[in-house]
Amino acid sequence: MCGIVGVFAADLGVAEIREALDRMMQAVVHRGPDEAGSLIFGHHRAGIGCRRLSILDLEHGSQPMPNEDATVHVVLNGEIYNHCELRAELEQKGHTFRSRSDTEVIVHMYEEWGDECLEALSGMFGLAILDSRSGRLLLARDRCGMKPLYFTRTPRGFLFASEIKGLLASGLVPAEPDLAAVDSFLTVGYVPAPRTGFRGVKKLEPGEALTVDAHGVTSRVFWRVRFDNAKPPATEQEYAHELESRLSAAVKSHLVADVPVGAFISGGMDSSLVAALAVEHATYPLKTFSVVFPEDNSVDESRYSRELVQQLGTEHHEIEFRISEAPDLLPKMVRHLEEPSTVGPGMATYKLASAAARHVKVVLSGEGSDEIFAGYAWLGSEGYYRIRPFVPRSFMWKLAEHSRSLRVRRVLRTLAAPDEVSADIEWFRIMTSNEKARALRLTAPSSDLDPIRPHPDTLASSADILQRRLALDFTRRLANGILLMGDKMTMAHSLEARMPFLDRGVVDFGLALPSRMKWRGKRGKYILSLLANRLPPEIAGRRKRGFQYPIRSMQRGPFADFARAYLLDSAKPGGLIDRPFLESALAQWQGEGPSGLRLITALLTLRAWCNEFFPAL
Fold it and tell me: Which pLDDT tens digit goes with each residue over 68-119?
């Protein structure tokens, strides 16, 4: 895992490129504190660099990694889990390797297959290949979006980096807010790609490749989520056996490292299955890590994680999180997150990663299971959809605008939505267009829900309601929210997080799995219940409970006082957020409790983001 940066076709001298690269690499040093490497290509007015977190082939895995004659170089942020198989195939074709690094496999794949090499990669990655023979730069991001990769075009050249801070540090990219991105954030709690929150700075879509050469910048998608409904049906036992085999192989491949590997566990089925399989494959005692919420038993899962570690025999570490830590942790979280997002308890993840990084360099986690195998309760909600065709939608929308209850407003907006995909998104809406117009002093034109809709090809492949909703969860909330949060919070502490449920083999299996094997009755992840014999009965029989903040402790007491002071004291005359709207939102939250927390945390995050990157707003 690393932080990669680069400048291409720059209107800069060699010394200026060198200075820009050095500043960019320093800005992402937390992603790779072990080693720094860079190369300048004067003829192409280009340079690439890498801050390396050494995990595989510690001695010979330095980057940028060249081919045999040093005409092609690659920098990689991520892990390629099928690199051994690819290496064997390439060696048979005559390629010579100088290391055991997975990074070197990529450069030889590019020599052999060109841009099509991306289709063969199984792993998580943001990568850049600089081909000095043809004067072109290739960028790519992994299929699921586990690793971020940002880029921008400036009057003085094309730049890329693993983090926005790397681009800003170049001195060539001004920090300006993108209000259309802010609009999307206040709609659903994250910024959908390609926007980032910074004007002119974009992020690659999952499964997207970008080519930069003398002809300009071109993009292509080498993978997109499509449900495979043509697979021959199988029995429940056959499906369960295949998933167990694929997940076990994924966990085994994700344990490959030359440094210690641990695991995050929560007491839920997903992370527990990953940890159980890791114990089977690990050749050393596995270290596990979990968050304890001592202030709120309704979200604290420590009793379940303790039962799991007792059964597995892991070396376990518990990290307490108290909501009173929010004033200290919120700015740190936002500083590393860079994009405004409220998807997941980022402050708790930040603290968990900080503690785990004292013991290991790599952790396994359970992200992705809910989005592939249907773990969220909303996926089974169909009642409102049955009556949608029979209600006057304009009337429902007017009722929603005047209702004082957040819960009622969500139901009414779902009924009023113009189509079912829009109705799906309404389940996650934080603020309407009218509310945003009242709240924001500075507004930007926005089509509101359009940037959040899944791609038409993905929707066209959906055979039923469940697949359509999973398309939204997988391609939007997971890629732009959950994975972004996980990457930034762990890499803030030079910790690599690996997600076996998002392994290529597991994802392909999940996209071909019939919905009846995912949702059964009133519960999701039915197929995972068939693997539950590996777990303590208390965990196997639990309903899905998301990893979340201690909500009861937030509505009253120190956190409520902090939220009010932080929002109101930071409201600047002529700033981004209207003070009367803040006062109204805080008062409503005190009256409605947990249902109003999403709006308050969104406003807190936005305020912290402005304070960090745009203090004048």
Answer: 999 999 999 999 999 999 999 999 999 999 999 999 999 999 999 999 999 9
- β-pairing verdict for 65-66 and 157-161: unpaired
Domain final residue pick, 191, 221, 251: 221
Q: Which residues contact 1 (CB under 8 A, 6 or more apart)?
A: 31, 32, 53, 55, 77, 78, 79, 491, 496
Q: Are residues 244 and 213 in the same domain?
A: no
Beta bridge partners of 292: 320
577 φ, ψ (degrees, to nearest 5): -110, 135
Domain-terminating residue out of 221, 244, 263: 221
Interhelix angle 504-512/236-254, rounded to 10 degrees, is 160
Asked if residue 485 and residue 367 are part of one domain, the reply reads yes
| 72 lies in the same domain as 26 | yes
DSSP SS3 for 233: coil
Cβ pair 16, 3 in contact under 8 A = no
pTM higher than 0.85: yes
Within a domain: residue 158? yes
Distance CA 1, CA 591 (A): 45
Tell me the residue length of the chain: 617
Write the pLDDT tens digit of every residue in 263-303: 999 888 999 999 999 999 999 999 999 999 988 777 878 89
For residue 347, the SS3 value is: helix
Q: How many domains does the chain have?
A: 2
Q: Residue 534's domain spans which residues?
A: 236-376+468-540
358 contacts: CB under 8 Å, gap ≥ 6: none
Task: Say yes or no: 169 and 243 in one domain.
Answer: no
SS3 labels along 55-96: CCCCCCCCCCEECCCCCEEEEEEEEECCHHHHHHHHHHCCCC
